[in-house]
Design goal:
The complex is a heterodimer. Chain A is mostly helical. Helix content of chain A is about 85%, strand content about 0%. Chain A contains 9 helices and no strands. The radius of gyration of chain B is 19 Å and the shape is globular. At the A-B interface, helix 5 of A face helix 2, strand 6 and helix 3 of B.
């Protein structure tokens, strides 16, 4: 019964979030702040993770394709497909659910328990719209850029293995990442990332907005936001993969 | 004027407000008093519409809050200012931005007019100019309360709600906050409602006092009448401290 109550409350909250803002100017100001906070501030972690994962994937792909029957470009091909299909969309979003999701849930949760949200409501502000909508729109618009950057940096990480070690040659790697390229896989990854961005921001906002009590409850809300975002991301990944591929 | 008629509120079957009726007049400081757990906060939040009452009517100058839809309630709330127990200043904004916020959301002024109005309100509550660009966490508790008052009055509200405004403040600062609330209530002819159990505040600025006990209206009247009431529960509450026992004795003498 509790889960049905949560689902109902989530949709009621979304009904309040996706309304016309009281002031478009204030919305865009908040939107730009969130673009900076959720998008640009996520860049360092995206770059660091992607470059290492790209390199690690290349090494693992090489180890697992040590077979004279397989062409030498297979390593690059496998690295590219893994980055495009799963890592730079799904795995990256699971990681960002930890960073962005916990940030949103704790920020909104703290505003709730310190009565800042009540203060907005008393002023006649639609607090759900003012606080949550810019976060959702900002992360949805930034996520495709983060995915593209992650793919590019991941491929650079793999190239680094070729350039700085003797595990694979750069020529074989570059041939592999260009071989039989299907542009739809990029589209598929971007569509998934937009859906996941929506899940992360709305679910985290829901848990933060409904936090009650004190610091302990904000911590619980933050944990619930990350755990449930991850579960929902994986579940929707399964459905989207079945539908889109 | 806010008129409360027979309101009832319960949570999970527990009656928290039990058929309360009273009136809060304009230009007066109306105080809701009572022990912890008596229903003061629920009563105040019900008056503002943060809690939906189970029965009864709450009228703001004849406009019935309990009959309003969400849009109408939000429109009414633009006539309401509220001072929260913990100030509830937005911690991502500076002092000046906090006071500007309601203006940016709801006024049609240009930016310079908004800044002038915000500065006027901050000056009114004696906030020095060098504090304007500080964050709420960088100023004292007393200053936070004063900034919260400035934010509450910046849109010229008709109704001002204060939830335990002196909580966590030293006696001297409490007195300053009390006098400030009293002064702006009379200056702007607002209907001010204060939720408090601070006897100093009650005796200092309370014009009309509503005493709640276990969710029921036990007594209401003026602060002078407190000394002559025969209500045992009220006397227990008011004269809990030795100081006020002495004050009563001196008053009777």
């Amino acid at each position: 019964m509790k889960i049905i109550q949560h689902i109902g409350e989530y949709f009621i909250l979304m009904g309040r979030v996706f309304r016309r803002p009281d002031r478009w100017g204030m919305f865009f100001r908040q939107y730009m702040k969130e673009v900076e906070k959720q998008g640009l501030q996520s860049l360092p972690i995206v770059i660091i993770i992607s470059i290492f994962i790209g390199a690690i994937l290349t090494i693992q792909a090489k180890i697992n394709t040590e077979n004279p029957l397989l062409p030498t470009y297979t390593t690059g091909l496998l690295t590219r497909e893994t980055l495009l299909l799963e890592f730079s969309s799904t795995i990256l979003c699971l990681i960002l659910a930890g960073k962005v999701g916990s940030n949103i849930a704790s920020e909104i949760g703290t505003m709730r328990i310190t009565e800042q949200i009540d203060a907005m409501e008393i002023m006649g502000v639609n607090s759900a719209n003012y606080l949550i909508a810019p976060k959702v729109v900002a992360f949805i618009t930034m996520m495709p850029f983060l995915v593209i950057i992650s793919i590019a940096i991941g491929l650079v990480g793999g190239w680094g293995v070729g350039a700085f070690t003797d595990i694979i040659t750069v020529a074989d790697y570059v041939t592999g990442i260009q071989y039989a390229f299907n542009p739809y896989y990029v589209t598929y990854g971007l569509i998934k990332s937009v859906v996941f961005a929506f899940i992360i921001t709305t679910l985290s906002s829901y848990y933060g907005y409904n936090a009650r009590g004190g610091a302990l409850e904000v911590g619980i809300a933050s944990t619930n936001a990350v755990v449930n975002s991850n579960i929902l991301i994986l579940f929707s990944d399964l459905i989207l993969t079945k539908v889109l591929l | 004027m806010i008129s409360v008629q027979d309101i009832v509120k319960s949570f999970d079957g527990n009656m928290v407000l039990n058929h309360i009726s009273t009136e809060m007049k304009d230009g007066c400081v109306n105080m809701i008093i009572g022990q912890s757990g008596s229903g003061k906060t629920v009563f105040m939040k019900s008056l503002i519409g943060l809690f939906q009452v189970d029965g009864g009517r709450i009228e703001y100058d004849g406009r019935c809050l309990t009959d309003m839809n969400e849009k109408e309630i939000r429109a009414l709330r633009r006539e309401v200012g509220m001072l929260f127990q913990g100030s509830a200043l937005f911690d991502s904004m500076t002092v000046l931005e906090n006071v500007l916020y309601p203006l940016e959301m709801f006024s049609d002024m240009n930016h310079q007019q908004m800044v002038d109005r915000a500065k006027f309100c901050l000056e009114h509550v004696n906030i020095p100019e060098h504090v304007y660009n500080l964050m709420p966490s960088e100023i004292s508790g007393g200053q936070q309360k004063r900034v919260a008052i400035a934010r509450a009055i910046v849109l010229n509200p008709k109704y001002l709600f204060c939830d335990e405004p002196n909580s966590g403040l030293d006696p001297k600062t409490s007195l300053v906050i009390d006098q400030l609330i009293h002064q702006i209530t009379q200056e702007f002819n607002m209907c001010t409602i204060i939720n408090s159990h601070d006897m100093n505040s009650i005796m200092e600025i309370g014009d009309h006092i509503v005493f709640l006990k276990n969710g029921s209206l036990e007594w209401s009247g003026s602060k002078d009448e407190i000394f002559h009431t025969g209500n045992e529960a009220l006397e227990d509450f008011v004269f809990a401290s030795n100081l006020y026992k002495k004050v009563k004795a001196a008053h009777q003498a």
